[in-house]
Amino acid sequence: MNFKMELAVLKEKGLFRENQTYVPIDGAYVFAAGKKCLMLASNNYLGMTHESEVRQAAIKAIEAYGTGAGGARLTTGSHPLYEELEANLAQFKGTEAAITFNTGYMANVGTISAIMNKNDVIFSDALNHASIIDGCRLSGAKRVIFPHSDMQVLKGLLESTKCAGKRLIVVDGVFSMDGDIAPLSQLVELAKLYDCLLMVDDAHATGILGNGHGTAAHFGLTDQVDIQMGTLSKALGSEGAYVAGKKILIDYLINKARSYIFSTALSPADIGAANAAVKILMQSIRLPEKVLANADFMRRELKMQGIEVGGEITPILPIPIGAADLAVKVANHLKEKGIILSVIRPPTVSVGESRLRLTVNAKHSQSDLKQAAVTIAETIKEIKGWKR
Ligand SMILES: Cc1ncc(COP(=O)(O)O)c(C=O)c1O
């Protein structure tokens, strides 16, 4: 098979992907296809990208330190704002220390491959993010995949899988495509019982759950999670990621995580913006409260319109459609009507499980959300009624 044929097959199956260009207006709206559209597809959950304190902090950081880091952290890229951000992140997460990475992908790949090796075993939820999966693969450790959030099966696997080395349980705190929350109390118990390290990816929980502090805080288990990873790129409105935990873990990652060691540091603007966003969250719970209230409102509105919505309390609202081509059709029609949402298709989800992924943020008005729920319901019914 050649590239052309493979791409033709993707097109035929409704699985071809291409970049879409949007011009952001603020946290809630973008210009797309020549008109103003309601953005219901972004992970900018708190609208931090357009908060004036955050923007000003990015500008100030450029004025103070220039536009690029010029080197990796361990060479010449560690400008003073890094120290401030990492200290603030550690305080915010309730841990001894924190380290930043250039992306969430690099944080997961770098962390998991640094701490686990071929003598170890990793127990990974079946719906974990691709960056966790790739980190597990790269580590060379034995991988044991347990069915999504199934604690009974996980217990059995922990019981039956013998290992002379270390054991790690790793989960998304909030699952990115399903919007549900990992059963952290049971995971903590199992990790203790079977002497495992526990790692939680808070990419979609940072700034949202636990008054913004993340999944562990949501369950009151801050000191029970060994490795709390999260992103600066979603609710914090910047770029990059962090890992928070004990100082010994952070020192270890600085010395062993290859995605940290061998990559140029984030730019001053990224760090300045993320630092301002963390400070806003340390001072007030207004934005995390607002996004959860909007998520609850939208869930109820969609259900009132007869639309099935998955997830729980979080701002990720998956709407099951089934066939990939149908999901694409619905999203395209909604775009024409001024509503942008994501289509999630294989290989991100299993065949037949294509869905619309709608994300709510703190800057959406409830009147816009209400109107969007009506339009989404009308469009789904219209398209699903079509002969294929
Ligand atoms: C659960 C999860 N982990 C990690 C990542 C990667 O983060 P980033 O986009 O900063 O690379 C994402 C986002 O795409 C995610 O959803």
Automatic annotation (TrEMBL):
<keyword id="KW-0093">Biotin biosynthesis</keyword>
<dbReference type="InterPro" id="IPR015422">
    <property type="entry name" value="PyrdxlP-dep_Trfase_small"/>
</dbReference>
<feature type="domain" description="Aminotransferase class I/classII large">
    <location>
        <begin position="36"/>
        <end position="375"/>
    </location>
</feature>
<comment type="similarity">
    <text>Belongs to the class-II pyridoxal-phosphate-dependent aminotransferase family. BioF subfamily.</text>
</comment>
<dbReference type="Pfam" id="PF00155">
    <property type="entry name" value="Aminotran_1_2"/>
</dbReference>
<dbReference type="InterPro" id="IPR015421">
    <property type="entry name" value="PyrdxlP-dep_Trfase_major"/>
</dbReference>
<keyword id="KW-0663">Pyridoxal phosphate</keyword>
<dbReference type="InterPro" id="IPR004839">
    <property type="entry name" value="Aminotransferase_I/II_large"/>
</dbReference>
<dbReference type="GO" id="GO:0030170">
    <property type="term" value="F:pyridoxal phosphate binding"/>
</dbReference>
<comment type="function">
    <text>Catalyzes the decarboxylative condensation of pimeloyl-[acyl-carrier protein] and L-alanine to produce 8-amino-7-oxononanoate (AON), [acyl-carrier protein], and carbon dioxide.</text>
</comment>
<dbReference type="GO" id="GO:0009102">
    <property type="term" value="P:biotin biosynthetic process"/>
</dbReference>
<keyword id="KW-0808">Transferase</keyword>
<dbReference type="InterPro" id="IPR015424">
    <property type="entry name" value="PyrdxlP-dep_Trfase"/>
</dbReference>
<dbReference type="InterPro" id="IPR050087">
    <property type="entry name" value="AON_synthase_class-II"/>
</dbReference>
<feature type="modified residue" description="N6-(pyridoxal phosphate)lysine">
    <location>
        <position position="234"/>
    </location>
</feature>
<comment type="subunit">
    <text>Homodimer.</text>
</comment>
<comment type="pathway">
    <text>Cofactor biosynthesis; biotin biosynthesis.</text>
</comment>
<keyword id="KW-0012">Acyltransferase</keyword>
<protein>
    <recommendedName>
        <fullName>8-amino-7-ketopelargonate synthase</fullName>
        <ecNumber>2.3.1.47</ecNumber>
    </recommendedName>
</protein>
<dbReference type="InterPro" id="IPR001917">
    <property type="entry name" value="Aminotrans_II_pyridoxalP_BS"/>
</dbReference>
<dbReference type="GO" id="GO:0008710">
    <property type="term" value="F:8-amino-7-oxononanoate synthase activity"/>
</dbReference>
<dbReference type="InterPro" id="IPR004723">
    <property type="entry name" value="AONS_Archaea/Proteobacteria"/>
</dbReference>
